Amino acid sequence: MSSTVWCEGAEKTRVLIAPDSGCGGNKPGELLTLRHPKSENGTCYLFNNGMLQELQWFKQSYGSWFLGDYISQDGSLYMATPVDPVFILLPIFDEARMKKGEDPGKFRQVDEILFVEGYPGYQLLLSLAEKCMDVVCQTQEVGSMKFYRLDNSKVLAWLSCKVCCLKKTLPELDKNYAAQDEKQTLVDAVSIVGEYVKTDPWLKLLYDHLGLEFVDPTTKETNMENLPSPNENYMEPSNSLQEKTNKKQGKSGKQTKQAKIETGSKNIRDMFSRACKKKC
Amino acid sequence: MGTIDFRAASDENSIADLSGQVHQVPCCIRFDGSAEVSHYFKPKSTEVEIDGVRMEEAHFRGRRLQGATISLPSGYSGFVLGQASNQNANGKRKACSSTEENPCWEAKAKFDKMTYWNHDNLPSKDDTFLRSFHWFSIAEALHKPVKVEDLVAVSHGEK
Fold it and tell me: pTM for this structure?
C-alpha cells in the first residue's frame, strides 16, 4: 500500500503509541469514562482486547508532524499504556464495603460493586475485576457466588509491592536517577504511586508503613490543579504545562526528574472527544 | 463514548507502514493534509553522536534542523489514527461519527520509530521528547499486576 493513500477519508489525525497486543481484538477498543482514582474526575481510559489502558498526552509548545506525505498541524503525541485495574477499582471497592470506623464493612458481589451511578463503563470491567481484585480483598464463597471485601492490610502490602518495583526501575532510567541516593528514590517511587491513590487513607498509610515522614501533598495538588481541566480549551493548558516543565528542567537534577514525571504521568481527561470538539 | 479501532493494523498488508517517515518538527505548521513532504524534506544521517544519541540533519524553510530517531519500546507500535469524515461517498452522514461525543478513530498507518527535530540545540538525552519515553518503563513497573506470591514476599521481607 502506498504511503500517500492511507490518509484518504480522514479529516483529522492523531499520533498514538500503543501496545501491539491491542491489534488482535475482534472489535474496536472502547473509550470509557471512569473516575480517576485520585482526583475522582471523569477520565478517559481505553479498554481494548481485554486490557485496560490509560492515555497520556505529550505536547511541546511548538510542533507538528510529518507523517509520510501528510502534515498534521497538531504535534501532540498520545501514549496508551496498560494500567493495573486494581488502582482504578480501589476507590469503588473502598466505597462498596461501607466501612465505618473499626467495622471492616460488608462483603459484596462484584456486579453489585461495579454499579457506579453515572459511570456505566465499570460494568465492562466485570471479568477483569473478578480476576484481579483477589489480591487486595478478603473473599467468601457461598455456593457459586463470590463476595468481596477490600482489606486494608492487603492494600498496603500491594502498594508496597508497587513502590518496590518502581524503586528498582527508577535508577535504570538515566544517569540523573542513578546518581541520587536510595532514600530520594524511595520518596520518588512513593510520590508516583501517590498519583494513583487517595492521600487519605492510602498514601498516609503507605508513608507510615515505610517509615517516611508524611509530606503535605498540597504542593503537589496545586500542580495538578494547573493541569488542563476537562472544560478548558485544549491548546492553552498544554503550553503552560510545557513552560512549567522547561523551567524546572533548568534547575537541579531532582527537579529535572520531577518535571519528567509530570509530563509523563498526567492523565488526560476525555482527550479524544474534547480535542475533536474544539476543532469541529 | 467512542472507539479506537486497531483491527486493520493486525494485517501487515492492509495498512501503510510509515516507519522512517514520522517526523516531529519544532514549529507549528498551520495545515492538515497531504503535501509533498518527501520531495522537499530530506534528512541525512551524520557521524556525530552525543551521549549515545546519533544526530541527523535536515533543512526546513532554509533552517537547519538537528534530530534523532527513537525506536519505540518493545511491545509497542506507533499508530496514526484517523477519524472518519462525517460524510460518506453519498454525502450522507455516517451513523458512527455523527455525534461528537462518540468519536470513532481508526488505525490508518503504523510505524516502529520516529524522528524528532530540534532547531537550536543538538539532540541529547535531556530533550523532553526523549525523556517522555521514560514513561513506558515507569508504567511497566507501576502497572504490572502484583501476584499473591509477591505480596507475601514483600510483607515478609520487611518484617
Answer: 0.82
